[in-house]
Amino acid sequence: MKNCIILGSARSGTSMVAGILSKSGYFMGDNLIGPNELNQKGNLESVDINELNNKIIHSHLTDGKIPKDLPMYATWLYEIPLELRITPPTLFDNEIAGFTEQEPFCYKDPRFSYTLSAWEPYMQETVRIGVFREPDKSIDSLIRASKYYHDVEISKERASNVWAQMYSHILDLLSCNGEWLFLHYNQIISGDGIERLREITDANIDKNFPDSSLSKSISIGATPKKCKIIYQKLCALAEFKI
To answer: Which one, out of 94, 161, 210, 236, has a CA that is 20 to 30 A from the CA of 186?
Structure first.
């Protein structure tokens, strides 16, 4: 099996992809985050991976770029512009090397959208799986997730910026060497994306994990133009017809 990194904005289907691969024999990290009201089958993220990515992000930010209303570990809700690219080497290369030695691994964290380039030098035979869905639905869910996890109410504009910045970083990373698979949420639910996932990872996957009834996201109206443009690029990469 090939190693996997699952990335993309939170509330976009990344947990579903991780769940499909969770019984394949991958090391997914210790201290996995379990089920909760917003994610009834579990986040399937390692607290240790999250903490490492938090440290990597904060090591590249000045105080003026750190939002005061969010806790330090909520970097999955940070707006990080492209000019603040995180590049190797970092202060945490030894920790990154330790995690990537535990093969085959499958790590999932939306923060990889910002930190992946720091991990790249240590990833061998690794598939980068970019997961996304309609931006308006992810944005709606990000607003609710911020309130649920951190008791912070963020605006639609702010949530839109988070979504746009994360996928802008991902699209920027395509210039790097490496194998990528882009999957739209709907491709996973329909089953088309699951077969593509199996083929590229060579893993025994759990086709029964996806459950469309668990999706509570709704459209929140007009999608910002910048998000529409990014979404169209992602759909083209995933070969998903809008």
So the answer is: 161
